[in-house]
Design a protein that fits this description.
Blueprint lengths: L1 H18 L9 E8 L10 H18 L6 E8 L4 H13 L4 E4 L3 H11 L5 E4 L16 E3 L4 H13 L4 E7 L2 H16 L3 E8 L7 H9 L4 E5 L3 H12 L8 E4 L4 H7 L1 H4 L3 E4 L7 H13 L7 H20 L4 H10 L2 E3 L3 E5 L5 E2 L2 E6 L12 E7 L1 H4 L12
Parallel strand pairs: 1-2, 1-3, 3-4, 4-5, 6-7, 6-8, 8-9
Antiparallel strand pairs: 10-14, 11-12, 12-13, 14-15
Helix pairs in contact: 2-12, 3-4, 5-6, 8-9, 12-13
């Protein structure tokens, strides 16, 4: 472990030395690469919507900073939820002069790209992945982690549901992100005097949850927690309703969901589900204004938390490029940490030394069909959770933390 820390420290020193010699915008242009899922189960989270969010951030920046004469370009690619492909694309983009890579809604891929970019001239703006390690043992001077992480996104829900549910059963996707989220929730359940009576793993992009849900039903657990993503979440909840799990007295809970997942289920299926969101379009005047502009460009769809996070992080990144007068990744990331963070999507928030953005999260409950007043009017906000409460304190496992 000491050798690893020494190696990382040496890498950081090298970066810091290089940073002092990169105080310009290379080629008089900034190139942004949106690396997302455009065809798989998480495509509704980011995908084309993340490209639109990036375009909006660029346009807003240009309006606010007419003195910035350099060109801003956007490229995008589908990494198909394959870590090796994500790294291959990232390295190709580095060679092609891409200054910042954005999104990556898949933990293994985000971690792999994070490692590949360490010490390079390219910044990594993670708005899609939630893996805790991005700001702990794998933190990097090239990386910021924006929208959420597993420890934060599951905490308000687990705490709230533990008050009435002492026994839990997990139906968890067999991936690094799912395991980390389950582990975080287990700690809270046990600390509150509860117990976990069972857990099953499911493959990603799974069409049939029958056997896992039957095990959950047979366990008689008070709470059946679904830890999936995208279309898998939709399938799991629909099938849980078909099996009558909520009607049998067990509480169905989502530990991770986005508004497009609720849209895919429909309010009749999703009504009364409780979970935590990082963004909701109808929170205040700013989120409504941002979401209206987004919706006009994206077939009437409102932004997900990933897409809102993409807008927010690109907005702040471009402000930092302009302030630093540099496109060199670690230089821009360092400037991002110095500047105040404020935008229409996430409001005023704080970027920590480990690269974690602290912003408000929302414990929500899905409305019934009769409560919904208009398209995408899906949530009742039960509680606004301050970022300082939702997110963990900085970890000494991160080499950037003093």
């Amino acid at each position: 472990m000491q050798l690893l820390k020494a190696s990382i420290a040496a890498s950081l020193l090298s970066v810091l030395v290089c940073t002092t010699t990169h105080s310009q915008i290379a080629g008089d242009r900034v190139k942004l690469g949106v690396l997302s899922d455009f065809s798989g189960p998480y495509s509704s989270w980011g995908g084309n919507g993340s490209v639109i969010a990036t375009e909006m951030a660029v346009e807003d920046f240009k309006k606010a900073h007419p003195e910035a004469s350099y060109k801003i370009e956007i490229v995008s690619a589908d990494f198909q939820l394959k870590a090796d492909l994500a790294v291959s694309i990232a390295r190709k983009w580095v060679d092609e002069g891409v200054n910042a890579i954005i999104d990556i809604p898949h933990s293994p891929s985000a971690l792999a790209v994070n490692a590949a970019l360490r010490g390079s001239a390219t910044a990594l703006l993670v708005s899609g992945s939630a893996h805790n390690d991005l700001t702990t043992r794998d933190c990097s001077p090239n990386t910021v982690h924006w929208t959420y992480d597993q420890a934060a996104i599951g905490k308000p829900t687990t705490v709230a549901m533990s008050e009435g549910g002492k026994s839990w059963f997990f139906v968890t996707v067999n991936a690094a992100g799912g395991k980390a989220l389950e582990d975080s929730s287990r700690e809270i359940i046990l600390a509150n005097g509860g117990k976990v009576v069972g857990s099953v793993r499911t493959p990603p992009n799974n069409p049939d949850f029958a056997s896992q849900l039957l095990q959950a039903q047979a366990s008689k657990a008070d709470v059946v927690a679904i830890l999936q993503g995208g279309s898998d979440t939709i399938n799991a909840v629909k099938q849980a309703q078909e099996f009558g799990i909520p009607n049998g007295g067990q509480k169905l809970v989502l530990l991770w969901a986005l508004i497009t997942d609720i849209h895919g289920m429909g309010l009749k299926v999703a009504q009364d589900l409780v979970f935590t969101e990082a963004f909701y379009w109808d929170t205040d005047d700013n989120t409504r204004s941002f979401s209206k502009r987004f919706s006009e460009r994206f077939d009437g769809k409102v932004p997900t938390s990933v897409q809102a996070g993409t807008y927010s992080v690109v907005t702040h990144y471009l402000k930092a490029v302009n302030a630093a007068k540099s496109s060199f990744g670690p230089t821009v990331i360092a400037k991002m940490k110095q500047l105040p963070v404020a935008d229409q999507a996430f409001g005023s928030s704080t970027l920590r030394e480990d690269g974690r953005l602290l912003h408000d999260l929302y414990l929500v409950q899905v409305k019934t069909p009769s409560e919904s007043r208009e398209p995408w009017d899906y949530y009742k906000i039960l509680r606004k959770v301050p970022g300082s409460e939702a997110f963990r304190p900085p970890s000494k496992d991160c080499i950037l933390v003093n």
